[in-house]
TrEMBL record:
Main location, first listed in the record: membrane
DNA damage recorded as keyword: no
PANTHER family with a match to the protein in the record: CATION EFFLUX PROTEIN/ ZINC TRANSPORTER (PTHR11562), METAL TOLERANCE PROTEIN B (PTHR11562:SF101)
Intracellular or extracellular location(s): Membrane
Domain of life of the native organism: Eukaryota
Keyword Transmembrane included in the entry's annotation: yes
Regions crossing the membrane: 23-46
Listed GO CC annotations: plasma membrane
The protein's name in its UniProt record: Uncharacterized protein
Coiled coil: none
């Protein structure tokens, strides 16, 4: 859609310059106005890329709620050092330390809890 609008603006600007050759300022105005469209479209994408490169915690995720949910899993004694980083537009990386008698079972339960509460498909590495 933006390309069509830009092409239409170039056609109109070219038509004006064709009819009135001394109005070359129209070309500059069209260039400035229509360069704002792609810039406005790419700024949100650049913002997301910046936050991914900075490995920030996802805005929409309540990390304290995730930690409370993991602490409520049967078999978990202690949870500390929970960190969540946004590593792609739709992916996070979770890291935590916990004390429990059966770590594989607790990890499976904790990932099931995260899949249900956060709506993400997860896997884990021990």
């Amino acid at each position: 859609m933006a390309d069509m609008i830009q092409s239409l603006g170039v056609l109109i600007g070219g038509g004006i310059i064709w009819v009135k050759p001394k109005w070359v300022l129209v070309d500059l105005i069209c260039t400035l106005v229509f360069s704002a469209f792609p810039l406005a479209a790419t700024l949100p994408m650049l913002k997301n890329i910046f936050w991914i490169l900075m490995e920030r915690a996802p805005r929409e995720m309540d990390i304290e709620k995730v930690e409370r949910g993991i602490k409520r899993i049967k078999g978990v004694k202690i949870v500390h050092g929970l960190h969540v980083w946004e590593i792609t537009v739709e992916g996070e990386l979770y890291c935590l330390a916990m004390s429990c008698p059966n770590p594989v079972l607790v990890l499976k339960r904790s990932f099931l809890m995260l899949e249900i509460s956060e709506g993400k498909r997860l896997g884990f590495i021990m």
